[in-house]
Description:
Layout: H1 6-9, H2 47-62
Amino acid sequence: xxxxxxxxxxxxxxxxxxxxxxxxxxxxxxxxxxxxxxxxxxxxxxxxxxxxxxxxxxxxxxxxxxxxxxxx
Length: 72
């Protein structure tokens, strides 16, 4: 979908999702230690589903739509 509709998700040759000059500020009001509900997966998923999720996340990383910032 992103590749097919690239003009809607990027400007010129900029990477998808990482448009320079456009930013957001995100404020989280949850402090460590995080509540138990935030420390577990939102939904259980089968091994097959987890593999597909990982594949799609890797595709988004490869297209620079998202970036890996580590974990807590």
